[in-house]
Amino acid sequence: MSSFSIPVTLINPEQRDRSMTLDLIVDTGAMYTLLPADVVAQLELRALDDWQAQLASGQRVVYPLGEVRVRLGGRERTTLFAAGPVGCPALLGALALEAFSLAADPVHQRLLPVVGTL
Questions:
Q1: What's the pLDDT tens digit per position in 94-110?
Q2: CA within 20 to 30 Å of 46's CA: 55, 66, 78, 82, which one?
Q3: How confident is the model over 60-92, as pLDDT tens digits?
Q4: Under 8 Å between Cβ of 100 and 75
Q5: pTM of the predicted model, to two decimals?
Q6: Which domains does the chain show, CATH number per domain?
Q7: Rounded-to-integer distance, Cα 6 and Cα 26, Å
Q8: Which residues contact 57 (CB under 8 A, 6 or more apart)?
């Protein structure tokens, strides 16, 4: 399976003037959006909780968890992010994709609209 990135605007939900656009790797295997710690600091995003996770390598980690506003394709949604270490890859996780009713098409490296389910 191939991976691909898309440009996403990240916005501090409490200070909307704090925003930046980054290329995030679409990762349907990640539940939350993962942001490097330096991006979290630049946006002044607030951690609400600590989250225990297991990486693909099997290593267990604890990352701060918070909320970020995401602008994608002219629409905005609030989603959860995990603050990873400085320099980690920025990932757009499954929870954010579902919030936008989007699915990954890795062959054509794009996101496609899907009908949501209840």
A1: 999 999 999 999 999 99
A2: 55
A3: 999 999 999 999 989 999 999 999 999 999 999
A4: yes
A5: 0.93
A6: 5-113 (2.40.70.10)
A7: 7
A8: none
